[in-house]
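thread: overnight batch results

M.L. [08:02]
morning all. the overnight job finished for the chain we discussed friday. pasting input first so we're all looking at the same thing
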Amino acid sequence: MRLPEFASKGAVLKTTWSRLLVLVGLSALIALNWSCGTLKDICNCLPYEPDIADYRHAAKHVPLPNATPVEITVQTILSWRQTPVLPPTMPRFGRELTLFHVAHAFLQNASVNLADCDVHLEISATSDPRAPRVIVETPVDSEYCSARRNIQKQLGQHGFTLDSTHGGDLPQALPAEVTGLAFEDFEHPQNRGTAEVATLWELHPAIVTITQ
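M.L. [08:03]
and the structure it wrote out:
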């Protein structure tokens, strides 16, 4: 039995609309994946807090000096005397003006602080996850973009995802070296890092390179 002509046209129209919806859906999925990839670019992070809310913001967001760094160890940083309180606008002074290099450390933790978008890293002297740690931070500033992408890529090669939605303790500590300026933070009302962080002293700004 032959179907009426209008029924055949309706079937064709239904098929056309189905194909169109599939194409629209695929286009939306591709666009979503592209945008998610853009959002996860470690250099495209947008801080949700203003600079004025960041403790000693101007002191932290500086370029690394073109100088020969002083060689130190993680234990050296852990031994530095801590100041009870520093004014929130305190410029760099004393030890904070010196560029340091830690040749042998273990990277234990990596994440992106969404408040200021700095890459937050924690290092220790040994691979023991319970060992005392020092915070190391790579700022959001454009001059550190390549360093941020490099540590993201290196961690990815070890099966660890670092971006705005992924981070935390590494499954296994990785050997690393660090070059950066000393910086004395303060005890935040919120946790500054993991429970293993054992000093207010940091290397900030700093560049971390996995050496394995």
